[in-house]
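To illustrate the input format used throughout this study, we show a single complete record. The first block contains the structure-token representation of the backbone; no residue identities are included at this stage. The design step must infer an amino acid for every position from geometry alone.
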């Protein structure tokens, strides 16, 4: 895969290094000439290019017509939006990613403006904190469809609603399904008549909006004063 990264700061350099280690081709475009020597110490010489990433000629020279992904990760939101729009609408790049520095600008980083994935660091951190507070002992193993669904794992708590009940009677959230149950090292098929026991390890696929509801079923029953 060939990825063009516009913005050679700490985020861009780290992203480029990670992609190169995974065997991908990378070109980093950095507008500030004085930053180029530092980038060339971290990355292969042919992976670094000096130029303005909002200039179509610069993008063309970088090989954007062959790029599978363009990631705009500069420190200026307006620049990142222009780059994503150019990549999508002028050059037909199939996948565009744009960094959001000011959370107030998130509303404009949408597919209509050429942005497939908007990386709002403040929003991501807020969601992670909220998720950690609501999950209890539940562990997120995998995120799917840009985080819309999660594959999660949790042990059935002895004081949970689930302990001693069949799967059919759990009252699972509408957009969730139990994928597997592991009991004392053995994999059990999660049929409706399977009775869950304490310390069973439950693997489930669940919509992000219903994760806390599922955690409430498998985790301990909250005590009301």
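Output of the design step:
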């Amino acid at each position: 895969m060939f990825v063009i990264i516009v913005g050679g700061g700490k985020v861009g350099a780290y992203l480029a290094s990670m992609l190169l280690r995974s065997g991908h081709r990378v070109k980093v475009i950095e507008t500030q000439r004085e930053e180029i020597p530092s980038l060339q110490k971290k990355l292969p010489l042919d992976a670094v290019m000096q130029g303005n990433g909002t200039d179509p000629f610069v993008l063309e020279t970088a090989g954007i017509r062959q790029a599978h992904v363009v990631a705009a990760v500069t420190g200026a939101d307006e620049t990142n939006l222009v780059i994503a729009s150019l990549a999508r609408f002028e050059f037909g790049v199939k996948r565009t990613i744009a960094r959001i520095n000011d959370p107030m600008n998130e509303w404009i980083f949408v597919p209509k403006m050429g942005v497939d994935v908007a990386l709002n660091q403040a929003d991501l951190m807020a969601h992670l904190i909220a998720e950690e507070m609501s999950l209890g002992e539940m562990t997120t193993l995998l995120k799917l469809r840009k985080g819309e669904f999660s594959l999660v794992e949790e042990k059935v708590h002895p004081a949970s609603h689930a302990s001693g009940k069949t799967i059919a009677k759990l009252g699972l959230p509408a957009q969730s399904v139990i994928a597997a149950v592991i009991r004392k090292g053995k994999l059990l098929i999660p049929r409706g008549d399977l009775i869950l026991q304490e310390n069973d390890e439950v693997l489930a696929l669940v919509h992000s909006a219903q994760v806390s509801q599922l955690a409430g079923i498998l985790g301990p029953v909250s005590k009301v004063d």
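Structural context for interpreting the output: The helical segments are 10-21, 36-42, 56-62, 77-90, 121-135, 211-218. The chain has a mean pLDDT of 89.
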